[in-house]
Amino acid sequence: MPVNKHNILSTKPLAEEQVQRALRHGCVVSGKSFIAIRPVITAGIKARCADIFRTGGLIVFTSPNAVRIVADMLRGVQQTGGIRVFCIQGATRDAVVSLLPQAEIAGTAAHSTALAEGILQHGAASVVFFCGNIRRDELPDILRGQGVNVEEIIVYETLETPVRLTSVYDGILFYSPSSVMSFFSANNLPGHTVCFAIGHTTANALRQLTANKVVISPEPAVDTLLQTVILYFDNINSQE
Question: Which residue among 17, 81, 134, 217 is buried most deeply as judged by most CB within 10 Å?
Fold first, then answer.
């Protein structure tokens, strides 16, 4: 029996291997970027970043973009201090392991609120939070509310790059609240389209803007989100 084809949109381009894996399961995936990341790198930020990684401390990442930009700024810096990292699971943790191998991962969580609770349990008195310009409030607000000093260093800006769709899709993959905002600034969805969210924060953003079904990846990683899509439509195909 031939596999029914399902048209899927990813709100950022996927690797060719991922596209082909989905295609083998009847999911035809196309990718369009709905946000752009612009690094914020100044002499002062580079100097502060180098100082932190030389002397050590507890740092926080909630985005792989922040990890990549910090790693770029650290090229040539001798990391002599003990850096401990709290970060979001999935792609952010993977980026830390790959790009900051000298750092020790002190804790991970699925979302910012749980990450803040883990930092409090750790007993931290101060943290450095590398983030973007539109980061969520939960983590710094929870920590400051419990007396933790949070030094925020903005290392990138998120720019919306909305694209108006001309095709109809069975499923759409979303990776951040900013991609959700950008997408719905230019588009509406037919009722049958399923929204797939990489995590709970992105899912909450979707629920504020659409009544369409939202399915959440069990882990905040692109491969896991894609597998969630594949399994969802495999199940649809098995019922048809």
Answer: 217
